[in-house]
Model the fold of this input.
Amino acid sequence: MNQATDSIALAECKSSPFDDGCAICMLRLWGSSDPGNPRVWRLAVGVVLVGWLPLFVLALVPLAGGNDEVLRAFLRDASVHARSRVAAPIFVLAEGVCGPRLAALARTFRERGIILQGRDSAYDEVVRSISRLRDLWPVHVLAVVLAYVIAILLFAYVPASFLPDWHHSQQTLLLGRSLASWWHALVSLPLLLILLLGWCWRLVLWAGYLWLVSRMDLRLVASHPEGAAGLMFLSHSLSDLSVLGAAIGVIVASTELAHLFAGGAVTLEQLGRVTFGTIVFVLLIFVAPLLSFSDVLARTRLLGVSTYGALAQRVGEAMEDKWMRGRAGADTSDPLSSTDFSVVSDLFQSAQRASTMRLMPIESGSLLVLTGATALPFGAVALTLVPFSKLLEGLIHLFL
Done:
């Protein structure tokens, strides 16, 4: 956000640190991000043109000398295509999808009145502190430096035998690496790592924001029909971030696919274990920030059980005294016209909701969306392991 936008947002208290900007410098060059902004799409295409297209062009260079092995090896390497042509642009497009949605969730705290009156200044300070961390240039520089350190270490210490053949060169290039391999080490891989580290920082900010808000005085309703004292809207963050889960799934699944195309043995059982591990990892990092509210939800449920239980006890006793024990002076001639039963029923339902309130603002639907998005790339790999005849036979049995 520019300075004027920041001032308006903070004055109206309707903004959040997630509706603009990005954790990495490159994605901030075009300012505000939204999924319909053509600049975001152009930037995603630009990432592919910088990260993948030069690799393809440099893999063509050995063809001039009659050597087509580098190009063949490059085309067979599914992992490099998935990382540079799929995962990297997804990380860019996620800026226009996840950022505004996280911002909308953050604004819900104020829109629903969950932030108590008189605590507005404290909440504004939380917003300002997270915004300052988001805009720290040293963090952006550190992300770039760390990305290059990781890329250089991988380039220098991973044995050449572990790398696809397109990394090797018969010419007298430095370290015996091809031109495409050098571009991958100095541009393509650092670019992907910068995008990944940028989103890691954004998730850290999201977790910090939720943790700070959870420590404030909140107005929670134990009998809220959503089942989490009015905080169940936070569960939507899991489905909103599912696009990132898909990108992580693409990176991991493509490694298995590349191993398969290189002649390695990949079984469905092995792929299942990798899929399960990746899903568990994604769920842990995306669900963990929501656990900040477990403590306050536990206290809210305890208070709700106590207060609603006591009220239900008193109302229930009065109800039985009037209608079952014939309390003196009570008109019990026409129970169908009395509103006592509906009032007591509503109260008892509220007491039941308070006693069964969840301790985590997480619903199964959001978990399924995140799990499905992460597992989808592995499903595509699994299809390559199943013969088409068996797949067709299974589909026929499914519908017949």
User: Anything to note?
Assistant: Residues 1-15, 20-35 have pLDDT under 50 and may be disordered.
